[in-house]
Amino acid sequence: MSKISSGFAVRSLIALAVASAFPLHPALAAEAEAAAAAEGQDAASATTAPATKGQLETVIVTAQRRAENIKDVPMSIATIKGDKLDVLTSGAGDIRVLSGRSPSLNIESDYGRAFPRFYIRGLGNTDFDLNASQPVGYVMDDIVQENAMLKGFPVFDVDQVEVLRGPQGTLFGRNSPAGVIKFDSAKPVFKQEGYLQLGIGNYSAKNAEGAFNFPVSDTVALRFSGTTQHRDDRVHNTNPTPGKGTQDFEGYGDNAFRLQALVQPNKDFSALFNYHQRNYHGSATLFRANIIKQGTNDIVDGFDYGSYPSDGVNYQKLETKGGSMRLKYNLADITLHSITGYEKLKFNSRADVDGGYGAVFAPPYGPGRIPFPVETADLLPNHKQFSQEFRAESNYKGPLQWIGGLFYFKENIQIDSISFNSFAAGNPQNIPFARQFQDAKSWAAFGSLNYTVTDKFKLRGGLRYTDDSKDFRASRTDFDASNVLVTVPHTLNSSSHNVSWDLSGTYELDKNTNLFARVATGYRAPSMQGRLNGLSDVPSMAGAEKALSYEAGVKQDLFDKRARLSAAVFQYRVKDKQLTAGSGTVNMNQLLNADKVTGQGIEMDFQANLGYGFSTTLGYSFNDTEIKDKKVRVQYCGNLANNAGLGCTPTDPMAAGFPGNVLIDGNDLPRAPRHQANFTLKYSTDVANGELYALTDWSYRSGYNFFLYTAPEYRAKSLVEGGVRLGYKWGDGKYEVAAFGRNITNKIVLLSAIEFDNLTGMLNEPRTWGATFKVNF
Predict the structure, then answer these.
(1) Are 608 and 681 within 8 A, CB to CB?
(2) Where are the domains of the chain?
(3) What is the 3-state secondary structure (H, E, C) of 83-122?
(4) Cα gap 17→567, rounded to integer Å
(5) To which H or E segment does residue 28 belong?
(6) Reduced to 3 states, what is the DSSP secondary structure of residue 56?
(7) pLDDT tier for residue 91 given thresholds of 50, 70 and 90
(8) How does DSSP assign 143-200, residue by residue?
(9) Do the Cβ atoms of 255 and 286 come closer than 8 Å?
């Protein structure tokens, strides 16, 4: 047994024991006795009575494409909803606010609000190219959102978020070997209802969100929901050359809406139509030159968050439009589903990637040493996605239940990568540019079986066949050695096939406790990238990766359903793991495959009504990942072989015969913190015919490597962030006013970096605060 595996089992048992003995029993017992006394019962009978005041609500999920009690689903799964979701999205935070708020979940971005990157159990992708694939699937209202630009849609009017951990290769398919993030919007209902929430905050933040649901007739209901979010700039350009480049940064305007129509002429047929749109404009992420102290991961002395000297132009623009049609038809014993989805987007992001102004050969320059100017933009002028699923499922009584279906996916994208002359008046576009085109198609056949072996033991199994093909073209237009403008084209093609499967079981130990175990496989289709920096560059391709995962755990209702525990241990192996390596000197990426990556860990979710007006949630995860490939090598920061004494100080073994390269065998996966924890505590009490409440939430994550190699400068510090919300509801919940704060300790740390030789880094969000008013009708 490995050094990690032996400790892993011990830690898992300790975690389960601690969780089971969580010292809240006296408070719960006291409340149970009080409730029993009020009803003339003893405490023992009260714990076996039907649902009483203070019990947790049943959580229903659709992780396995059926509505089920979360306790009965044999996998590690968590939900984010209700008060917890409300406090996290206070101040109109983007989807990254969910990072660390569920065990094993990390979300980060090099593009700010526009391009989130998801990690589950350490598995993700640091690639910043607009064609990057991710091993975490993202499903919004039953439609897979493949391109990363589709994954940052604002979170509003959402019923709940489901985090499905581990491979989801059977029912959700390709590109989900790490797991799936599933968003379910509030659906139309046949009654008039809605809400309006208005918010203000520091940096002149102004936000509005609302929904209006109304029945048109007995068979048609409509629901319109939307959000508008605005914040002024909070960072100023202090470049000593007045008027050079964009002058103010980090403001944004983010507007989105969703229109749904439910047509239900009878109990056997329904059609749900969904149209959604987003229009976002703001600043690209600020790349801050020479912000890291060499030899450490400390921010330089005298750092001022509100100052950013730059000679470049900075902006982001994103427009997305999409729609879906979900048809459901109930036959006598079978339910038929048809799910059609269409998405399209346009994106343009421009930034001063060198992080400063001037250059060593074009003074003045700063802050610190600027080796060369890099002002670039990436555009998605054309993107289209179409998906279609047909699914049938049994709905009769009996021990055997099944699901079967077909799935089709098609995507067409174009990516332009251009650069600008920061030294010329008006920062004009340079002639050299790179262009990528990709046409991707995929189809799959899938099925799953559920079999009730006994009243206490249930088995599930699934199988999916996937066929993927990609046609890829990339070109670089540039001047050759004779100063003649030429275009060098390249083509790549791939065709892959895969069979994914899973097998799981649930055993009811008693009426409050389920044990589960699961074995599952996952698959990520080949990835291609043509982010070319010169005529001699060629595109890179990473072959398909395949994951095999084992997990086991317990789901338990405690203290007369006033508390709930879910805990799991897991271990996985990914063969031919797709990795993204930087160039070491310029803002480029290269795809490669490592022989194998392994991971193992534990996850725990706990929630409870503590009594006396208090309730809490607690989550923890331990993820230990390791790259296993003795030959794989990558270029490192600033390529010190050419820039001695500059840039970072790598600690990995040098690759013999390859100057400026290191070996990464044995390293953790990048952006994969080993430890994550989250905690919320809420207190509420009745005051003057209303409810006064206070809620605080905290998250912790340990440090992680920014890149595939290790260097002290490129390792994130551990981070604790907290939020608070204080509010009052009155009029039977019709009205609510609240004050909030996010990152209340104002902890500022490095989240990522650019691999130049001037220690350029990116930071987390500073403290924000504000107030909201909400009316329900």
Answers:
(1) no
(2) 63-776
(3) HHHHHHCCCCCCHHHHCCCCCCEEEECCCHHHCCEEEECC
(4) 10
(5) helix 25-38
(6) coil
(7) confident
(8) EE--SGGGTT----SEEEEEEEES--TTTT-SS-SSEEEEEEEPPP-SS-EEEEEEEE
(9) no
Please give the structure tokens belonging to residue 381: 């002028």
- Check: CB of residue 737 under 8 Å from CB of residue 772: yes
The answer to whether the beta carbons of residues 712 and 648 sit under 8 Å apart is: yes
756 touches 773 (CB < 8 A): no
What are the distances in angstroms from CA 663 to CA 555, 631, 709?
42, 7, 8
Pairing, β 77-80 against β 750-754: unpaired
Residue 242's pLDDT band, with cuts at 50, 70 and 90, is confident
19, pLDDT greater than 60: no
How far, in Å, are 176, 253, 325, 503, 528 from residue 525 at the CA level?
10, 35, 26, 22, 10
- CATH code reported for the domain at 63-776: 2.40.170.20
Residue 637 pLDDT exceeds 70: yes
* Kind and range of the H or E run holding 33: helix 25-38
Is 0.70 topped by the overall pTM? Answer: yes
Q: Which of 188, 171, 168, 190 is nearest to 180 (CA)?
A: 168
Beta partners for 290?
Answer: none
φ and ψ of 549, to 5 deg: -130, 145
pLDDT of res. 644: 59
Phi, psi (rounded to 5 degrees) for 20: -65, -30
Q: Are strands 457-479 and 375-394 parallel, antiparallel or unpaired?
A: unpaired
The rounded distance, in Å, linking the Cα atoms of 22 and 15 is 10
| CB 84, CB 617: distance < 8 Å | yes
Sign (positive or negative) of CA dihedral 658, 661, 664, 669: negative
Per DSSP (E only), the strands in 301-353 are 315-330, 334-352
Specify which residues 505 forms β-bridges with: 459, 517
User: How many Å apart are CA 702 and CA 715, to the nearest integer?
Assistant: 10
